Automatic annotation (TrEMBL), chain A:
Topology of this chain in the membrane: Peripheral membrane protein
Position of the signal peptide: none
GO molecular function: ATP binding; ATP hydrolysis activity; ATPase-coupled transmembrane transporter activity
Compartment list: Cell membrane
InterPro entries the UniProt entry points to: AAA+_ATPase (IPR003593), ABC_transporter-like_ATP-bd (IPR003439), ABC_transporter-like_CS (IPR017871), ABC_transpr_CbiO/EcfA_su (IPR015856), ECF_ABC_transporter_ATP-bd (IPR050095), P-loop_NTPase (IPR027417)
Coiled-coil parts of chain: none
Limits of the ABC transporter domain: 2-242, 284-513
A GO cellular component annotation in the UniProt record: ATP-binding cassette (ABC) transporter complex
Name of the protein this chain belongs to: Unannotated protein
SUPFAM superfamilies according to UniProt: P-loop containing nucleoside triphosphate hydrolases
TrEMBL record, chain B:
Entries under InterPro entries matching the protein: ABC/ECF_trnsptr_transmembrane
Gene Ontology CC: plasma membrane
The keyword Transmembrane helix appears for this protein: yes
Organism: freshwater metagenome
The protein's name: Unannotated protein
Matching PANTHER family: COBALT TRANSPORT PROTEIN, PROTEIN ABCI12, CHLOROPLASTIC
Length: 540, 253
């Protein structure tokens, strides 16, 4: 269906070859997953398929790419619209019209489809993606999962043979992600659609992939079945790390497989959870906090405390009220009723250095904080703002990520480097409360490890209070001591990470699913518990 | 109540007719009455609407801009310009200009007539802006664009991008500004917001252009319509009532 032969790509004004002599073919009805570190060219590969690269971005392309027998170098992306549907990284950026129905017909109108064909197809897609009740809704008011479904729908309505998706679940909560992926799975199996998908959160998609294309930094790529690629790849979901750590004969890609392989381990190990008792003092006190946007109630009478030395993850579906809660704590808006106290202060009244010492906030788009033309200048500005010695922020940054070039423009950094820059800017003033909204969006595993290490040492060693809002259950399993679960503006669960995550199958991390009913969340937990049993000298 | 759907052109035709009417009338009270009337219509329409497009708030934004325009126009009108004889209110120090610029002066006597003229000019411009902002609030520009034939591909893409990215700019600006407050950047104002904002809107525009391109926009010279929009009775009522303002404006003022 898709064939790359000897493809090489260089972008204009760039010395690095993105791809070097790439050849592979993707068969009809295959679901192929593209993996690679950030900046390795995953998006470029996807956009090569329908010719957006190089027709839209410029660059030199050598070799030939053909889709269903049509060469993309000779055809503009518009000419392939009926064969390839492409869904970008952020679907909200690609919507052309205002309502769901108009969005679905946009492509068909542009290609001059007849009215009865359009009507039939719109109904069919609305049913297929369960969008019928949303057909007249304005797209901007839909949740992230619904928007993603609309974007997929408006690609599918053209009856494409190939569907290309760039990180389709990165902004979605685990349940919405599952919904989107199972729809794709069904399309592949029922309609023989060819799907090419890129994703950082491998644990979500690995079970669905037929083959994996793994792109390395030097422009090489290999394509193979998941078991083969994952045997060696540094980029791997927790389930594979578990299999490697336990020295299993082969790596499994589904919870079911690995469960079967590890049944002998679960038989004799004790079912005790590690207990974490927190003795920190309350630094954030929220009392009966309510907030509404117009008619919509975002928070209802929430009462919560957050302590020092503790990492708390706030979870919940898209639109549950996580961001609103954080904005109230940070002091972006005054609330309708109730109170928020950060170290005894009303956060709205905190200003200047006093604020920097108390609250550190990293928004969903970390780049919102960056305004200077180079990393060095950002760091210098931060030294000045915080009254620190010149060079201390830069030194802090070098400890987090040694590879960042101080002369680089912040926009040219990779997602991971940019996050470490922002972390350095915020953490150098050592705020008592660190608040991060959705920090792992678009991060690869390497950057995630940096984040985990930084957060854990900040909370444990320096005894600060850390709050993160996230959809990433694996991150929560790694770092959080406590999980607060919010649904529809209410706190529905609040407790130790183990208890909250294990009580809901959708939010359980992979290792927990494999090891259930043993209460281990991460590879490290499982290894420690198993070695305690097999080498009991440490235990009485 | 069933949500009435107006033809995309209805409110725009109404707006054009009203614009003609206020130009004919040229009266502050009439202008203010028109703005009050359209604000009421937009307010009721938005309240009963199930959900809003990003453009629904356009009128409130325009009303704020209108006040600024009136203030600027009044200031310029009284400070710079042609002397208007009449009842002198107060005098500003006069700045003498070379001979070849005779007829224009800066400062000087401010007469009641001159002040009135400046204010009514400002109100006129502001009213025109509000009328078209109201039409935008009631009919998203996207729906209007879909009525247009594809003349030139690039033109269409540019218009869609402008109308999509513009409302986003407003919300992105406040998001970035409040995020930067967290870094202790409180005094730098809009200068610090401009750069991230520009980069974000540029990236968004490119994304949107790529999306339109890959969905076949402009590839076929002909395009079909999913739903034929028809002028219905309630559309005609709106247009007819706006037309009634023209004789009113001519006769009454």
């Amino acid at each position: 269906m898709i064939s790359f032969s000897n493809v090489s790509l260089i972008y204009p004004h760039s010395l690095r070859t993105v791809f070097d002599n790439l050849s592979f073919t993707i068969e009809e009805g295959e679901m192929v997953l593209v993996i690679g570190a950030t900046g390795s060219g995953k998006s470029s590969l996807l956009r090569l398929i329908n010719g957006l690269v190089p027709h839209h971005t410029g660059g030199i392309l050598a070799g030939d790419i053909s889709v269903d027998g049509i060469s993309t170098s000779l055809t503009k992306p518009g000419g392939l619209a009926h064969i390839i549907g492409i869904v970008g990284q952020n679907p909200a950026h690609g919507f052309v019209t205002d309502t769901v129905e108009e969005e679905l017909v946009f492509g068909m109108e542009a290609l001059n489809f007849s009215q009865d064909v359009m009507r039939k197809r719109v109904e069919e897609i609305l049913d297929l993606l369960s969008l019928t009740h949303l057909r007249q809704r304005s797209i901007s008011t839909l949740s992230g999962g619904e928007q993603q479904r609309v974007a997929i729908g408006s690609a599918l309505v053209m009856h494409p043979k190939v569907l290309v998706l760039d990180e389709p679940t990165s902004a979605l909560d685990p349940i919405a992600a599952e919904e989107v992926l199972s729809i794709l799975h069904r399309l592949v199996h029922d309609l023989g659609l060819t799907v090419v998908i890129s994703e950082h959160k491998l644990e979500r998609v690995i079970g669905f992939a037929d083959r994996i294309i793994s792109i390395s930094r030097d422009g090489q790529a290999e394509i193979d079945i998941p078991e083969e690629i994952l045997k060696r790849s540094a980029i791997a979901p927790p389930i594979v790390h578990l299999a490697r750590a336990l020295n299993l004969d082969s790596v499994g890609t589904s919870v079911r497989e690995v469960r079967r392989m590890t049944s002998h381990l679960r038989d004799f190990t004790p079912l005790v959870a590690q207990s974490s008792d927190s003795t920190g003092e309350n630094v954030v006190e929220i009392n009966k906090l309510s907030h509404r946007y117009g008619q919509k109630i975002a928070l209802r009478e929430i009462t919560l405390d957050f302590r020092t030395g503790e990492i708390t993850a706030v979870m919940g579906r898209n639109g549950a009220g996580k961001s609103t809660l954080f904005k109230s704590i940070v002091g972006f808006h005054s609330s309708d009723s109730g109170s928020v106290r950060v170290l005894g202060n009303n956060p709205i009244e905190l200003h200047g250095v006093d604020r920097l010492k108390k609250i550190g906030y990293i928004p969903q788009e970390p780049s919102d904080l960056l305004i200077h033309p180079s990393v060095a200048k950002e760091c210098a500005a931060s030294d000045r703002d915080n009254g620190l010695e010149a060079g201390s922020t830069l030194a802090f940054l070098a400890r987090l990520t040694p590879t960042v070039n101080p002369e680089a423009h912040p926009r040219d950094l990779s997602e991971g480097q940019r996050l470490s820059l922002v972390l350095a800017l915020i953490l150098c003033s050592a705020p008592e409360v660190l608040i991060m909204d959705e920090p792992t969006r678009g991060l690869d595993y390497q950057a995630k490890t940096m984040l985990v290490d930084t957060l854990v040492s900040y909370a444990r060693n320096l005894g600060k209070c850390v709050l993160i809002a996230t959809h990433d259950v694996e991150l929560v399993a790694e770092v959080a001591d406590r999980v607060v679960f919010i649904a529809d503006g209410d706190v529905v669960a609040d407790g130790a990470t183990v208890d909250v995550l294990l009580s809901s199958p959708a939010f359980a991390p992979q290792v927990a699913k494999v090891m259930s009913p043993a209460p281990w969340l991460t590879v490290k937990d499982a290894l420690k518990a198993i070695s305690d049993v097999t080498h009991p000298e440490g235990v009485q | 109540m069933m949500k009435k759907r107006f033809h995309p052109l209805t409110w725009w035709i109404g707006a054009i007719v009203l614009a003609i009417a206020i130009s004919l009338a040229d009266d502050i009270a009439f202008n203010v009455a028109v703005v009050a009337g359209i604000s009421f219509i937009v307010f009721t329409a938005n309240r009963s609407a199930i959900d809003k497009t990003p453009w629904s708030g356009g009128l409130w934004f325009a009303l704020k801009i209108a006040l600024v325009i009136i203030a600027i126009r009044t200031f310029i009108g009284i400070a710079i310009g042609v002397p208007v004889p009449g009842n002198t209110l107060f005098e500003l120090p006069i700045l003498y200009l070379p001979d070849w610029m005779a007829g224009i002066r800066i400062g000087g006597a401010i007469t009641q007539e001159r002040l009135f003229f400046a204010v009514s000019e400002g109100v006129h411009i502001a009213t025109l802006i509000c009328i078209f902002a109201a039409a935008t609030s009631l009919t998203s520009p996207h729906r209007l664009l879909r009525q247009m034939p594809i003349f030139i591909y690039e033109f269409g893409v540019a218009l869609v991008i402008a109308t999509s990215v513009l409302p986003q700019l407003v919300s992105s600006a406040s998001r970035i500004k409040s995020a930067q407050r967290m870094r202790g950047i409180e005094r730098r104002g809009w200068a610090g917001v401009a750069l991230p904002l520009l980069e974000e809107s540029l990236a968004r525009s490119l994304d949107l252009a790529a999306a339109m391109d890959s969905r076949g926009y402009g590839f076929s010279r002909k395009r079909s319509r999913y739903r034929r929009e028809k002028l219905l009775r309630h559309d005609l009522t709106v247009i007819a009532s706006s037309l009634a303002f023209i004789p009113l404006a001519v006769v009454a003022f």
